[in-house]
Structure formats: structure tokens, C-alpha cells
Amino acid sequence: MKGGKRRPSNPAKARTNGKKRFSSIADDSFFEATDQKRRRKFENDEEIKSSDEDGGDSDSEKEEEIDETPAEKRKRLADAFLEKLRAKEREREENEESEEEGEGRREREGERDTLIAKILQQDQLEESGRVRRALASRVQKPETSQGFQFLVKHRQPVTCVALSEDDSRGFSASKDGAIVHWDVETGKTEKYLWPSDEVLKAHGLKDPQGRAKKQSKQVLALAVSSDGRYLATGGLDRHVHLWDVRTRQHLQAFPGHKGPVSCLTFRQGTAELFSGSFDRSIKIWNAEDRTYISTLFGHQSEVLTIDSLRKERVLTVGRDRTMHLWKVPEESQLVFRAPASSLECCCFINNDDFLSGSDDGNVELWNVLRKKPVHIVKNAHVSCSENKSDQNNLEGLSNGHKENEVHNSSRNGSAVLSWVSSVAVCRSSDLAASGAGNGLVRLWAIENESKGLRPLFELNLDGFVNSLAFAKSGKFLIAGVAQEPRLGRWGRAASAKNGVALHPLKLS
């Protein structure tokens, strides 16, 4: 082979020997010119950036945005909330004193931060139930002209009502399957329309069980989440239905209960949903993920009412004359037995105290440390056939009415009228209410350390009060009233209206 066709391993040696020159790629003028043109193009174009440097920064920024942890998100929202409070306080101070300088201004800023810390601490204590607002002593006696005003009318008996977290919107449902969303101030209503059977089956609805050939739309219970995004309903079709409040569209149907769904509640501040049923069980769902979590067993008869606060505890009552306090994380329960009656309704006062109503007309106050009621108000709701003079004589009693054996049964009329069908407590306060079918809603003051109940006022409302809800501010009370009881047809008030009534409360 000729030497001119062989490429030496060392080009520099070839140059020194004076033979034919073999240049490398780096020494080639063609590649050098290309690099210079490319370099000039990059230098003249300012918009073109290095992919190694700038592209990496943008990707890292996106990763930082995506990788924000829940704790970091909470911190960011808390900082924004604090800054909002500081801005309000700063604006108020600027209106009072336009010019401040030096140490005086720093002192004012320190006082402002201290005030904001106290406000946040007070809100947290009230939210957790450790501090109770004194509202009962501020409620003024309602005037005769100011009674219940009907906001919404239903064709069939109303079974349940609920209020949103900001007290601006309300929800109600009735035995004909109507679900209504209404504005508290204007009374404007919007109905939730049930989708077709095909859509319901696509959302998880199972075929009717037993002898039933068609799904019943009768609604017995509803609950709205704290963030106002989800509405849950349940009834005779044995399913828990989840709705989108913003669009009023049906989202999901949760099967699993073997009996009618009688009660629902959301745990405050979460998407955790609890449902009670006639099948004696309580099921836990997640509305955000639309999944089933677990089932709680313990009742020996139908579960009638359920309630929960921010803590992972659930309060239920059933027809087995018991009330259960479920500690979900510990997987344990406390059982409270009523003296001699069937409990109909219950609600939390705080994490350790709760209220109940029974079918013998009593209202009971309970504490988590005692298996028996701390205080019992007997005959809390007597029949309207009671003479007015007798009612006036009873005002001075500690519980508002005489003992059971004193009343003449013939004067009490139908016993179902005195059933305490609903109780409610204004959140983090000492103000409570109870309703029955005797034409009265009674307001109660919860005494210090939950030692007893003191009667406040009687609000006239004709019909069966199947559900009650206080505004968080304590400025009004919502009642779901009907001609029949919520879970049956044991009595009838023909003169009553089916609807939602509001009673304003004046606070001093």
C-alpha cells in the first residue's frame, strides 16, 4: 500500500516531516467557519438562550411549583391571611393617626401583631370547642310581631335543613325527593335535578333490593361540606348521593348500606363524610376521592341521628335507647344509655358535652365522663292543648315545666306531638334550641361547665320541627317544618306548612 494513502497517527509529525498535510477536524477551516457563523448568529440574536442554563432554571422553577408540600401550602395561606389582617389593622390605624414616626410606630406594630395573635388564638380555641361564646345572655326577647318567616315552600314534608359555613346559603330536602338550594337574604331558590337512571347507574347506583321495583327518591338527610363544595344526600334508596354545589350536578352514588340512609354529617374542615342507616351501621366516605373508607358497628337498632365536629369523633343515637360516641382513630366507642326512653336526636356542644332529645318529651344534657345525663329537662315540649295559665305558672321552674307525673295525659293530646324531633347548638356557644310537633321551638342557655339547661324563650311555629340549624353568628335560626314527622307518619298537623322558616335573633 502506498504511503500517500495511509494516514499517520500523529498529524504534527507529518507536518514536521514536510510530507502531505493531514489536518484534524479542529484545524479544518470549514468547521472553523461554521462555528464562527453560528457564534455570530447567537451573539446577534438576543432571544436565543442556552438550553443548558436557562432551560434548566425554568424546569427547576416548575418543579418547585409542583413540589409544594401541603405544609408549605398551609404556611403560604397562613402568611397571606396574616398579611391581610395586618393590612386591615394598619389601615384602621392610618385613619386614626396619619403621622407616626420612630419608636412609636414600632410599638404600634408590635401591639398590632399581639392583637392579631390574640384574635387567631381565640378563633382557634372557639373552633376547637375549648372556649364557649356567651350568646345566650345576649339574646333579646323576641317581639310578638317578629316570628318565623317562611323562606322556602315544599310540596311534601321537609325532612332536613343545613346551612353553609358562611351562613349565606341554605339547603333543604323533602319526602318527594326535592332538594333545594336557597339564598338566606333574598330567598331565591335553585333546585337540584335528579339525572336519568342511566346516569345514576354510571355514577354507581345499584339496582333496587328486595321487592322494590323502582328506586325511591325520598330524601331523609343531607349535609354540606365546610368548604361549600359538596352536598351529600341520603334516603330510602339506600345510597349516599354526592352533588357539586357550584354546578348542582350529581357526582357519585355510594352503595353499601342495606337500609335507608337516615342521617349524614361532614367532619368540619375535611371532606370526610359519615352516614348512618337503618341497617344499624355507620359508614365513612371520602368525598374528595369519592371512596369508601370503613364501617362502624355497635348499634342494635336503627341509627336515627349523627353529628361530628372537627375532631375525629362521631356522635350517634338509635332506637336501641343508646347514644354512641365513636373515637375513630382509636377504633373504640363509648355507650350512653337513656334512662327510660328512646332517643330521637343529638348534637355536639363541644368535644366533651352533647345534647339529646327523646320521644317522651325530654331534653338531656350529657358529659363524656358520665354514662347518665348530667341534667334532664322533663316535658320540655308539652302539647298545645296545655292551658296558657298553666304555662305561665311554669315559667319560674328551673326546667320550665312540671314533672311527668303531674301532667294529665288527656290534656296532652297525641303523644307524638311532644316528641323532641330536633336539637341544635350554635357552634362554640352556650345557645341551644329544640323542636317538636307541639307548635313551639324552645331556646335554651347551657350553664357554665355544662351543669344544666336554663329555658330562655319560646318561638311559635306550627307543625313538626324536623330539623334545626343555627347561623354560626347566632343572628338567626333555621327550622325545617312539616305536617308529618321526619321518619314516619305517626301524626299529622293539617294546619301546618311544609317548608323552611327563619327566625331572626337580636343580640345585645
Radius of gyration: 34 Å
Helix content: 10-25%
Label the overall shape.
globular
Tell me the major beta sheet: 4 strands, antiparallel
How are the strands of the biggest sheet laid out side by side? 1-28-27-26
Tell me the number of helical segments per DSSP (H or I, 4 or more residues long).
8
Mean pLDDT: 79
The proportion of strand residues reads: 25-35%
Question: How far is it from the N-terminal to the C-terminal residue, by CA?
Answer: 115 Å
Q: Identify low-pLDDT runs.
A: 1-6, 11-24, 40-56, 60-65, 384-413
Quickly give the structural class: alpha+beta
Number of strands: 28
Notes on the protein architecture:
It is a single chain. The chain is of the alpha+beta class and 508 residues long. It is built from eight helices and 28 strands. Strands 1-28-27-26 form a four-stranded antiparallel β-sheet, with no helix packed on it. A four-stranded antiparallel β-sheet has the order 2-3-4-5, with no helix packed on it. Helix 4 (70-96) packs across helix 5. The relative contact order is 0.10.
